[in-house]
Automatic annotation (TrEMBL):
Natural source organism: mine drainage metagenome
UniProt domain Aspartate/glutamate/uridylate kinase: residue ranges: 1-74
Gene3D superfamilies: Acetylglutamate kinase-like
InterPro entries (UniProt xref): AceGlu_kinase-like_sf, Asp/Glu/Uridylate_kinase
Example of a GO MF term: kinase activity
Statement: the UniProt record of this protein carries the keyword Transferase: yes
Protein name: Gamma-glutamyl kinase
Record keywords: Kinase, Transferase
Length: 97
């Protein structure tokens, strides 16, 4: 498993910091990766992370080349990583090749 932690609950159809009613995209694979990359935007501020689009693209390349499963989840919210690891109540986006 490859896990990327960010400051939102996963990949959304639009930026949840701008659009409060944005819906999470629970699953990404080769059938929807192109559409997801169109939805995922750049960072809203100057930083080294490249925004969600960069995270999605890099994670997808990593899972494709390693035959792993990838996850994007909120690492800044207390309990999210623990709940993810024990399989209880965490929001996230799962990526498979």
């Amino acid at each position: 498993k490859i896990i990327i932690c960010t400051d939102v609950d996963g990949v959304f159809e639009s930026n949840p910091k701008v659009h409060k009613k944005a819906s999470i995209i629970p699953y990404v694979d080769r059938s929807n990766i192109d559409e997801v990359l169109k939805c995922a935007g750049p960072s809203l501020k100057i930083d080294v992370t490249g925004g969600m689009r960069t995270k999605v693209a890099l994670l997808y390349d990593a899972i494709k080349s390693s035959n792993s499963v990838g996850y994007i989840l909120n690492g800044s919210k207390a309990g999210t990583i623990y709940n993810f690891l024990i399989g209880k109540g965490a929001n996230f986006t799962e990526m498979r090749w």
